[in-house]
Design brief:
The complex is a heterodimer of chains A (about 375) and B (about 70). Chain A is α/β, with parallel strands linked by helices and about 375 residues long. Chain A contains 14 helices and 11 strands. Classes of the chains: A alpha/beta (about 375), B mainly beta (about 70).
């Protein structure tokens, strides 16, 4: 496979935007991205879109050509990818595979979700559809409940504490307060996080990511052509997507995401690097426990040590390996279908040195980890300065 | 049908069709035969390691209770 680079990025702010529809968000991100890469719509050879539940949230289907057409992109393959919260991570994986194989040179990869037009119980119900609706879903499981059960088991087996989970929220809110595009730019204290409204015990509202609207896009091209468009190209060193059973009760061990472990292994191998080479990461903190487990599954720490790793400040902005410098899904927001590509944008922003107040010192190799459902899809991408 | 609680949670924020039940306890039970099942709890709250038995089934949802 030939090497592939990210030659442009574009994001909307994440938040609750009553006056914005799904298409206008996706178009804004896509157009920003094409401007950033100095590419015109007529040069785009394929459009890959990640979207989880546009049909359920806003009643619109056939989303990829619907959005591409509004950006002036027609006459090329335009396809929507659905893999729950890893929808746009999956779109990126398939786009990189096609460009790497030589099928196209310029592919636009977008992600979008418009969630806030529905009341919270309805959103909860739509999100539950990423689980097994004949089993856990029928019994009344929600996504917070599935991750609450994961947290309970992790606490039971490894002694992980409520305080360690709250430390993830405190850190990510602090980082998000420095991100002008974040949904909730509010600094919180450990006491506030611990005393939050209960959602599914032991998780409070501060353990849960946000219900957001937003979109993100990246343009990818073969590395050998990147310099024709930009002097800010970032190389995709490794990328892998893997899968596991959808239902939580069909997994042997729910304190680890096997799909993440496998995707990381493959991505590290492709990149020719190991966990110790990763200077910073954007991980899928849909719930605080998920960031703790991500540290373990990606090999940053041993199994069971993910809680202490965060609590000791190792993943803070000024720590040895900053995690979620963007604020993560927790503070930046989690417009489900936009999240995977949004993470790639945030890693690219750090590598380019454009992160402003949240810019970190060592920023030449970063990783993005995108998780679908309770771990049935995982995408791990490793990016490096070109 | 009997088994052991593998993990559990108490749900406050319910999906639309279960809002009237909240808060309710959801569990994963490891059945004695080895298979796991997601179920609800009838009666007293349970914790990891508790032994439970199936109490009833309502609208296709299995309910377990502490032994």
């Amino acid at each position: 496979m030939r090497p592939v680079a990210v030659i442009g990025i574009g994001k909307t702010a994440f938040g609750a935007f009553a006056d914005r529809d799904l298409r206008s968000l996706a178009v804004e991100a896509g157009e920003k991205c094409m401007r950033d890469a100095h590419v015109s719509p007529s040069q785009v050879e394929a459009f890959y879109l990640g979207n989880f539940a546009g049909p359920s949230f806003v009643g619109q289907n056939h989303l990829a050509p619907y959005i591409a057409g509004a950006m002036g992109i027609t006459g090329v393959p335009c396809t929507r990818f659905e893999a729950a919260c890893a929808s746009s991570g999956s779109a990126l994986f398939h786009a990189v595979s096609a460009v790497g194989a030589g099928l196209y040179d310029l592919a636009l990869v977008g992600g979008v979700e418009k969630m806030t037009s529905q009341p919270t119980p309805k959103v909860t119900e739509i999100l539950a559809g990423a689980g097994d609706m004949c089993g856990e879903g029928r019994a009344g499981a929600t996504f917070p409940a599935l991750f609450a059960m994961i947290a309970r088991r992790h606490m039971y087996q490894y002694g992980t504490t409520r305080e360690q989970m709250a430390a993830v929220a405190v850190k990510n809110h602090l980082n998000g307060s420095k991100n002008p595009q974040a949904h909730m730019r509010k600094v919180i204290t450990l006491e506030q996080a611990l005393a939050g409204k209960p959602i599914a015990e032991p998780l409070t509202v501060y353990d849960c990511s946000l219900i957001s609207d937003g979109a993100a896009a990246v343009l990818i091209a073969p590395l050998e052509r990147a310099a024709e468009f930009t002097d800010k190209a970032v190389k995709i060193l490794g990328i892998a997507q893997t899968s596991d059973m959808v239902a939580l009760d069909e997994k042997d061990d729910i304190t680890t995401f096997r799909a993440v472990v496998e995707a990381a292994k493959k991505a590290y191998k492709m990149a020719g690097v190991g966990p110790r080479d990763i200077q910073f990461a954007e991980v899928h903190d849909c719930f605080t426990i998920a960031e703790i487990i991500a540290g373990e599954d990606l090999g940053f720490v041993k199994k069971g040590e993910g809680g202490a790793y965060v609590e000791q400040g190792c993943t803070a902005l000024n720590g040895p390996r900053p995690i979620n410098t963007s604020g993560g899904l927790k503070s930046k927001g989690h417009p489900v279908g936009a999240t995977g590509v949004g993470q790639i944008c945030d890693v690219v922003i750090q590598i380019r040195g454009e992160a402003g107040e949240r810019q970190i010192e060592r920023h030449s190799v970063g990783l993005a980890q995108n998780l679908g459902g309770s771990g049935a899809t995982a995408v791990v991408t490793i990016l490096g300065a070109a | 049908m009997t088994g052991t609680i593998y993990t559990e949670t108490l749900i406050y924020a319910a999906p639309e069709q279960f809002v009237k039940d909240a808060p309710y306890q959801l569990v994963i039970v490891t059945l004695d035969e080895g298979k796991r099942l997601t179920a609800r709890i009838a009666g007293d709250r349970v914790k990891i390691g508790d032994k439970v038995e199936q109490a009833e089934s309502r609208d296709g949802i299995p309910f377990f209770k502490k032994i």
